[in-house]
């Protein structure tokens, strides 16, 4: 619906988004989200094997993308992110991170230095959090 009505609604949507950014207020109706559980693996008998998917209003997603785009541009233009930061950056990924690590280890080895690599798996980290405490801290 948004795409179809865009020729008429674009100025209105733009004004709402700009006002939201200017006032730093996220419109309350856009905060309402449906949570749908999606199975992580075939064993659907255990609740831990589901991950929540948020179904948010379209306009909230548009605002989030505008803010994300502006923030990324600001961080890139001002060289705030380190070159080795690979997550959530265009042109960087796991391959880039792996190449940086491999290059650093190889360069140190060539200099006669040793390297220690510690890897952490945060796959189920959120499952370990006490959600009551987290909610209390967020409110």
Automatic annotation (TrEMBL):
<protein>
    <recommendedName>
        <fullName>Reverse transcriptase domain-containing protein</fullName>
    </recommendedName>
</protein>
<dbReference type="InterPro" id="IPR000477">
    <property type="entry name" value="RT_dom"/>
</dbReference>
<feature type="domain" description="Reverse transcriptase">
    <location>
        <begin position="19"/>
        <end position="139"/>
    </location>
</feature>
<dbReference type="InterPro" id="IPR043502">
    <property type="entry name" value="DNA/RNA_pol_sf"/>
</dbReference>
<dbReference type="Pfam" id="PF00078">
    <property type="entry name" value="RVT_1"/>
</dbReference>
<dbReference type="GO" id="GO:0071897">
    <property type="term" value="P:DNA biosynthetic process"/>
</dbReference>
